[in-house]
Amino acid sequence: MIFPSGLRALNHPDYRRFFLAQLVALVSGWMHTVAQSWLVLQLTDSPLRLGLIGTLQFGPILLFSVVSGAIADRLPKRRVLVATNLTLAVLALALAGLVASGQVRYWHVGVVAVLAGLAQTLDGPARQSLMAELVGKVDLVNAVALNSAAFNAARIVGPAVGGLLIARFGVVPAFVVNAAGILVVAVALARLPARGAAAPRRGTTMAQEIAEGVRYAARTPVIRLVLGLLFVVSITIFNFTVYVPLLARNVLGLGAEGFGFLMASLGVGAVAGALTVGFRSAPGPPPLGAMTGAAALALTGLLSLSAARHVWLAAPLLFATGFFGLVLVASCNTRLQLAAPDELRGRMMSLYTLVWGGSFPIGAFCVGAISEAWGVSTAFFVQGGAGLAGLAALAWWWRRR
């Protein structure tokens, strides 16, 4: 079967198997995410503590992602990914067991979040680098867009199913289903041919290799701009595991089903944005002007959510924010991968992971703290306004140079 141009990365059999297995795990992973957020609110009823869980889970990315990129360039990527997926499955089952036994406490959720964050820190650069090796540079833009679409299609299905599952059976089934989905990916990776081989050793230390990657990024202006755009959007917009449950419960008065619906609205927009990048006929990612415009529209959507008091307004604003946010994120991913030499790709993607995931602990804590003190509507306003100011500063710097 030959797939159309917009799905051309699926013509690579190994990528196709990897993509389908990953889609299953992503759906179950979003079920886990909404269940974890709901569990924290049940245990603590505290926006600040909900934000702190995000900080704990994504803190390892902030601290260790640059190191994990050098590891990804040194080790066989397939084996790294099998190990990280097995670790995540065990952690999901451990959390399910704690809840089912009635022994779960807030600190348990925090410990699981930290350990999951450590596994995800190593997983991210290896996964992104392996994807380039599965499809080659010609189809890389399409593969990145399809991966982003899969991630956000899961954002639609996972929260919707997770919300219904939590409402009927509680959070335990969501954690168990996530463990099963992750195991599907581990099996698929183990059955792939030996891809993602380690780069030849050059007699350099890991510290030297990390420094080499950082120097390459620092002396390449386009990479600095792309990472800057990604930072502004990541630290302000993509804290929805904190924003949306608070918006659903505290502002709109919704339950688990309403929470799932709002997350699904966000996910529909994000899928549409990712596919917009993937179905572009022009080679390469969108131009920098289009990327900057997408970031501005996403931040405007976030700012507008501060005025949302009804589902009919919140849902389309979440759709728009997700759409333009993912246009920007998918474009940043492809620009970095195409700009990176093969031997540095793991380290460039570790910088992507650092900015994309490492910004979340700071942003999540800020959102939680602002929401605790003044409400989530104020958090939307502050974060949206700060993001637009940061975007204006980046645009000024780029014009000046």
Topology summary:
Layout: H1 13-44, H2 47-74, H3 77-100, H4 106-135, H5 140-169, H6 172-191, H7 206-218, H8 221-236, H9 240-251, H10 256-278, H11 288-304, H12 311-339, H13 345-374, H14 376-400
Walk me through the structure.
The model has no long low-confidence stretch (mean pLDDT about 80). The relative contact order is 0.17. The longest helix is centred in the N-terminal third of the chain and has 32 residues, at about 15-45. Helix 11 runs antiparallel to helix 14 (about 375-400). Helices cover about 80% and strands about 0% of the residues. The protein is globular. It has a single domain (about 5-200, about 205-400), classed as Growth Hormone, Chain: A. It has helices at about 15-45, 45-75, 75-100, 105-135, 140-170, 170-190, 205-220, 220-235, 240-250, 255-280, 290-305, 310-340, 345-375, 375-400. It is mainly α and about 400 residues long. The protein contains 14 helices and no strands.
